[in-house]
Amino acid sequence: MREMQFQTSALLIRGGAGSGKTARLIQELGDWIATSAPDRRALVLCATPLAAQEFERRVAEALGGKVPKRIIITTARAFALDVLATPEVLEFTGRKPCLILEYEYKFIAEDLKLSGLRPRRLKEMLRFFFRSWTELEDDNTDWLLRGDETEIHGFIKQSLAFYGRMLEPEVSNLAVNALRMENMTERYAYDLVLADDYQVQSRASQILASMVASQRIIVAGDENACAEAYDSYPYAKGLDEFVTLHVNAQEETLTSCHLPQGISRALGNLEESDVLQPLHTKNAQDAPEKGFKTKACKTPRTELAAIRSYVKDALDAQTPLNRILVAAPNASWQKNLALELMAAGIPAAITEPEEPIRGDIRENERCQEARFVTLLALAADPEDAMSWRAWTGFGDYVANTGVWYKLRLSAYDCNETLPRILDIVAKDPELGVKLCREHSQFEDVEYSETSFALRKRNMALRKKAVRI
């Protein structure tokens, strides 16, 4: 792990649910806006896109108007993708900041089976890689064991680079390493950086926030509320680490509770159990009483009926339909709830803001949506290697993995693009057979972001020379 120390002014705000952490951040931001020069910039990193929208709404409400353009309110992932989109960083990574889709990743997963490792071992290894990326463990030169770990890691990194995609766990990792390049940190420096729900962000996202704070950084969080919300592998230890990394850090603990009494009592019951300790829910008697009820149901059927009854009572009490939201734990429950409400004559719509494209890539009839999206991607960019890989792998039980592995190695060895290799094979099958030379075993391919970026640049120069 690289040694890191930050000299900027730093404040850590701790507090339990409803203790006013977000309000405290908004207050700090408002004070800063009132006293800072018009050319000063601030960055706010929230846990999820919805949290960012709500934070922006509350800031606008506090200011009595729109949020100034010099205030950027976003997620760490979105900010990292912006960093990765700059020309200098594109040259470093060799990849556009394009996150791989769920169905696209299935093709890489199929290719990984060529390693001969047992599926369970592969899954464990990939989880280790992903967590290590989010925690910047790859800073250590010896973080991988020689053999299987090095081979699989090199293969998946090379595959992602070749296909021009990124996995979510590596986005902030790549951004942190990009900002370590000369003068990059200064380009993305913000005078003030705020981070809400710090504990649910990955370690790489947390470090990214510190790297771009040029004068002051304020983070808020609760180590007891660490759950995966948007970033993979949230890092609750980051709250303590924040104090260690920032030599001028100060701490502030909020103990008051601003939640309605019913919610506060529910949290208090949890506090008395062994599930969550400690939760800061003091002074709950000062909070206003609002409608918060719990109801135990013995079966799913009675639970659905209870929700239907509750919604109907709310509508009879003149509650506007667009003010009623029913939260469900998964897509199946969403569908069952919607059917239950509509059967009672209550209009219901299922909200699916980021529903992934699913389906069995091995059967064309069960992945029609994925195939349609792939065709659109190829229409937009005929050079998109990942979409070509997907399109020619649909409908095959092993996704044509063996052929594609040879094609990919041939393209890599010849410094050619994948569409170019496909064109060669289509026009001259015999030459295609020669290009797809036999590989007796899963090859150990050394990989680095810089080396692959240089190869990509050489390929682009070669294509340009051919056109001339």
Ranges where pLDDT stays below 50 over 5 or more residues in a row are 273-288, 438-442, 450-459, 461-468
N-to-C order of helices and strands: EHEHEHHHHHHHEHEHEHHHHHHHHH
Q: Averaged pLDDT, please?
A: 82
From the N-terminal CA to the C-terminal CA, the straight-line distance is 47 Å
In percent, how much strand structure appears in the residues?
A: 5-15%
CATH domain class of one domain: Alpha Beta
**Strand arrangement, major sheet:** 3-2-4-5-1-6
Counted by DSSP, the helix tally is 20
**CATH architecture term of one domain:** 3-Layer(aba) Sandwich
Structural class by sheet pairing and helices? alpha/beta
Characterize the largest beta sheet: strand count, sense, and whether it forms a barrel: 6 strands, parallel
Question: Could you please say which CATH topology of one domain applies here?
Answer: Rossmann fold
Radius of gyration, in angstroms, nearest whole number: 26 Å
In the CATH hierarchy, what is the superfamily of one domain?
A: P-loop containing nucleotide triphosphate hydrolases
Give the CA-based shape: globular
Total strands: 6
Question: What percentage of residues falls in helices of 4 or more residues?
Answer: 40-55%
What does this protein look like?
- The two termini are 47 Å apart.
- 33% of the residues are buried.
- Among the domains are: 9-84 and 174-254, Rossmann fold, CATH 3.40.50.300; 295-355, no CATH class.
- Strands 3-2-4-5-1-6 form a six-stranded parallel β-sheet, sandwiched between helices.
- The protein contains 20 helices and six strands.
- The protein has 468 residues and is α/β, with parallel strands linked by helices.
- Strand 4, helix 10 (203-211) and strand 5 (213-221) form a beta-alpha-beta unit.
